[in-house]
Amino acid sequence: MSYQLVILGSGNLATQLSLALQDSGHNIMQVYSPTPEHATTLANKLGCQAVSTLSDVRTDADAYIISVKDDAIKGLAESLCPDRTKAVFMHTAGSVPMEIFDTQAVHYGVLYPMQTFSKTRKVDFKEIPCFVEASDAETLTMIQTLAESISDHVQEVDSSRRAKLHLAAVFAANLTNHCYRLAERILQEEEIDFRLFLPLIKEVAKKVTVMSPKDAQTGPMVRYDVSVMDKQLSLIHDERTRQIYRLMADSIHDDATQHHL
Fold this sequence. Notes:
Residues 5-83 form the Pyrroline-5-carboxylate reductase catalytic N-terminal domain. Residues 128-251 form the DUF2520 domain. By secondary structure, the protein is of the alpha/beta class. The protein folds into three domains: 4-157, Rossmann fold (3-Layer(aba) Sandwich); 158-211, N-(1-d-carboxylethyl)-l-norvaline Dehydrogenase, domain 2 (Orthogonal Bundle); 217-260. The chain is 47% helix and 15% strand. The protein has ten helices and eight strands. Strand 7 (129-134), helix 4 and strand 8 (153-156) form a beta-alpha-beta unit. The longest helix is centred in the middle third of the chain and has 31 residues, at 159-189.
């Protein structure tokens, strides 16, 4: 089934989600962003209309997908929902409860794709887990149908569990990527190419597909080799990075110790 959709947002997730939905046969009628250039950039990719004022957002879409910063969702819902009582409203945020639409929309829910997105890097949505939730059975069916048209991994999850999924995703992706950045900075001090570390990074990622991250952990922090860790700390010139190292070392060792009890 094909739906008529309006995308509210033009960021990383909004870009990749709208492209995937269009590729799956849905019609993106409009893209809204308060920044005209951003709306136009995405709309041009989709071949649809770009708008930058809420009064120009169409009223005849089947669904409105709000993919913006978390603190902007409520304001958009308050502005758009009252005049579109037959439409389904959904947001794509990991940590915002579905109830943000309460008293605003009649039919509403969530479609949360758990992945890291960049505007310029296309992803295979079929592999991405999508977590859905809805205000009623009919709306759930619609959101599930929409999600299943782009993903082979769709699950119904309530807001409290989704918040935990998002938290875990931050650790697994955002914080891990920041560790890559810290490693890159250390390498840059010696003019060493970060790409030399790609085989290491790939192997760690492969290992956790076949074993628990707990069992995959190695290195001086597991055995708490103080002499090695002290030497490494002496090579770190930034105090905040040293604090991160110490906290991670203690956490890794504590987890390893509990594992062997």
